[in-house]
Amino acid sequence: MTVYMSMGEAHRRLSEYVNEFTEAIASQNGAALKPLLAISSNSPHRESVASAIQVFKDISRLVKQVDKYAQLGDMLQQHIRCMQSFQSKHYIDAYYALEKSSNAFLQEFRNWETAWAVDALYTIVYEMRTLAEMADREMEINGKNPDKLKGAGSFLMKVFGSLVGKGPKRLGALYVTCQLFKVYFKLGTVHLCRSVIRSIETARVFEFEEFPTRDKVTYMYYTGRLEVFNDNFLAADQKLMYALEHCDPQKEANIRMILKFLIPVKLSLGVLPKEWLLQRYNLLEYIDVVRALRRGDLRLLRHALQNHEDEFLRSGVYLVLEKLELQVYQRLIKKIYIIQKQKDASRAHQVKMDIIVKALKWLEIDMDVEEVECIMAILIHKNLMKGYFSHKSKVVVLSKQDPFPKLSGRPVNP
């Protein structure tokens, strides 16, 4: 059902919006300004303003009353056009209008000495990233090269530059950093995160604990993921555990996102999560991986990686999980060692190659003695097993003192 709006009603709605905007700027009321700038979600004004502008098209006449705020008159016109385009699902046009309004706002923001408008700036930063993603999807559908998210990243870097310093605005830098991380991860340009991280972690004007908890959790989540990609599992464990321990326990979706990367890290450090944890947070793809490690079952690990290959590749953890094969071999040897110890404790530390070959064959893994020798040498080199290899006797002689050293890792308890 079409609802018709009179010219008078349209004028009233737009005037009301412009007046609220002007009042928020004049009184430096960031809380009042923030909802006026929302576009993509929870926008209390978008539909009303977009409908009104369809009827009352002379925006410039309305915004003359904000001329005293210089750039903000132009900014407001573009922001209203953005609302109109977004409401019509023309996301490329909406992005272009938002880009113009956001640059105008940033120019004024730099001149304000206090941090009163930081929350409003957060909204602009969020909307720039979100609309850029939507515009890129529209461009792909139209057969064009999607480049708006890259442009949003450039704008966010300008915002970051305006926040880095000794003033109160610096507390906004971590939020913008997290939005930049989302852009870079989406674009696959994670190497660009490094320069931003250096600014956050090396600048003496920053005290990390001063930042809002929400931003600290997001920051540690993304920097933890970066450490996973670089195989720095101890650093990844520290960062992702920080994110997990400080995450709002009510935000189960966020906890699941953290665990999705923390679990491969824990497994790499020799910590096996409980199955109830995987069930609770719907991380079922890890169940057989954990079972394989627990049992020393190489066949089960390979099946688990194969069955969930696409998902693990998308997450970027496939190679991490693939490297768990060495731990599975270690646990298999440990099981053989325990069985031999029950039969004859004095000879348990001598594990014959042909026994390992038979165990693997039972698991439908076809390896000859030479291949098993190579695996044993790697286990000893990586300190997953203490002992030495007797090539002549085809025997691994395990140390009688702690033959299977524990890896360094602490349990995960969200």
TrEMBL record:
GO terms for biological process: poly(A)+ mRNA export from nucleus; post-transcriptional tethering of RNA polymerase II gene DNA at nuclear periphery; transcription elongation by RNA polymerase II. One of its GO terms (molecular function) is double-stranded DNA binding. Residues 217-403 form the PCI domain. One of its GO terms (cellular component) is transcription export complex 2. InterPro entries: Csn12-like (IPR045114), PCI_dom (IPR000717), WH-like_DNA-bd_sf (IPR036388). It comes from the Eukaryota. SMART domains: PAM (SM00753). This is PCI domain-containing protein. It comes from Picea sitchensis.
